[in-house]
């Protein structure tokens, strides 16, 4: 489903309300809420809202478990760190138990070994056969990538691993990412996409020919869950189905 908002502020507010509702329902049903966060610029406003009233007091933080959808393999103090951004914008300001927050980074370990450790962590958290996040937040780059599933990379063909790390040559850095098969198990996936610079990629992903090698966001098709596209009018400007 595609939901088009006037601007980023409106979109972020709705996304915060959806975060709260999803968290409350998950806790009511299963006693806990498991979410994977996205990085980049798209979620900054949403994360800030989650640390403010009325949202902050509505989230069942004590029952919330925070993972990441992907990470740039840089220390937690680095400006590029997705975990650092989430910590600064909301995690350091809300009463989530620190031991329930799992950044995709650790010192003194190679990224590939870390990816295996993170996968084990997820296996322990979830039922092995049923690794269902209650909510996965995703962004989409203007090249159509999502999480760290970049165009033309091997990880796009991963069929069994839940977490992978690889060297992304054009950025000269390692990336760690949940794989598409794991993401697609989620109960709910929400893409946050705004800005004119995303309009071409959004059109190709949603209305263009299927070509996930070029537009990896097309790989995100949950098995039993739902995918929501929260987009603003600029990003949606090329979509025919929205008009
Ligand atoms: O590199 C990344 O980019 C995507 C998109 O970022 P945005 O700045 O366009 O929102 C992001 O979803 C991902 O987490 C991040 O590692």
UniProtKB/TrEMBL annotation:
It catalyses: 6-phospho-D-glucono-1,5-lactone + H2O = 6-phospho-D-gluconate + H(+). The keyword Signal does not apply. It comes from the Bacteria. It holds the Pfam family Glucosamine_iso. Keywords: Hydrolase. Residues 6-229 form the Glucosamine/galactosamine-6-phosphate isomerase domain. InterPro entries: 6-phosphogluconolactonase_DevB (IPR005900), 6PGL (IPR039104), Glc/Gal-6P_isomerase (IPR006148), NagB/RpiA_transferase-like (IPR037171). Its EC number is 3.1.1.31. One of its GO terms (biological process) is pentose-phosphate shunt. One of its GO terms (molecular function) is 6-phosphogluconolactonase activity. The keyword Magnesium does not apply. Gene3D superfamilies: 3.40.50.1360. Pathway: Carbohydrate degradation; pentose phosphate pathway; D-ribulose 5-phosphate from D-glucose 6-phosphate (oxidative stage): step 2/3. NCBIfam families: pgl (TIGR01198). Hydrolysis of 6-phosphogluconolactone to 6-phosphogluconate. Belongs to the glucosamine/galactosamine-6-phosphate isomerase family. 6-phosphogluconolactonase subfamily. This is 6-phosphogluconolactonase. It comes from Pontibacter ummariensis.
